Amino acid sequence: MKSALMYLGCALALGVTPLFEKLASRGAPSWIMIAVRSLFVGLLYFAGAWAFSAHKELAGVKPIHYLWIVISGIIGPTIGMFLYFELLRSQPTAKVVALTATYPVFTAILATFVLREPFTAVQFLGIVLTCAGVALVAR
Fold it and tell me: What does the mean pLDDT of the chain come to?
């Protein structure tokens, strides 16, 4: 039951967020939206980490892992969010969210080749169904 509530809470939080992003995109450039959001969230995360003593774990993280964190931060939250915010300016919110929600398809395929993770028939079926669903929602 606890997991079900967490899934629901996550889905609601992620479902409401694009509404605020669309409202913000009417009066703020995409790069400002990313900068303000990143600064606020970063400060919030660091305050939380400090409060829960996670700062003690920073020294144990290897430099290569920091590099992967930085690269993922550049690709997703910077490039991806910039393009997402730009799309919100000119496209219907439901369409933008549906089409950009296809990223798990890319993740599954890339994980197979880059990380050598298994790719199953069930995953393939999931990708097909995801694409069909997105096509219906994006119309």
Answer: 89
Cα separation, 63 vs 67, in Å, equals 6
Token pair, residue 119, equals 């790719």
pLDDT digits (tens, 9 = 90+) for 31-78: 999 999 999 999 998 888 878 877 677 778 899 999 999 999 899 989
Q: What distance in Å separates the CA atoms of residue 137 and residue 92, rounded to the nearest whole number?
A: 11
70-99 average pLDDT score: 91
Q: How many CA atoms lie within 13 A of 65 on its CB side?
A: 6
Distance, in Å, from the CA atom of 62 to the CA atom of 24, rounded to the nearest integer, reads 37
| Cα separation, 57 vs 18, whole angstroms | 33
Q: How confident is the model at residue 15 (pLDDT cuts 50, 70, 90)?
A: confident
Specify the 3-state DSSP secondary structure of 84.
helix
User: What does each C-alpha distance from 119 to 103, 123, 127 come to in angstroms?
Assistant: 16, 6, 11
Please report, in angstroms and rounded to a whole number, the separation of the first and last CA atoms in the chain.
Answer: 35
Task: Give exposure, 82-94, as e/b (b: 16+ Cβ within 10 Å).
Answer: eebbbbbeeeeee
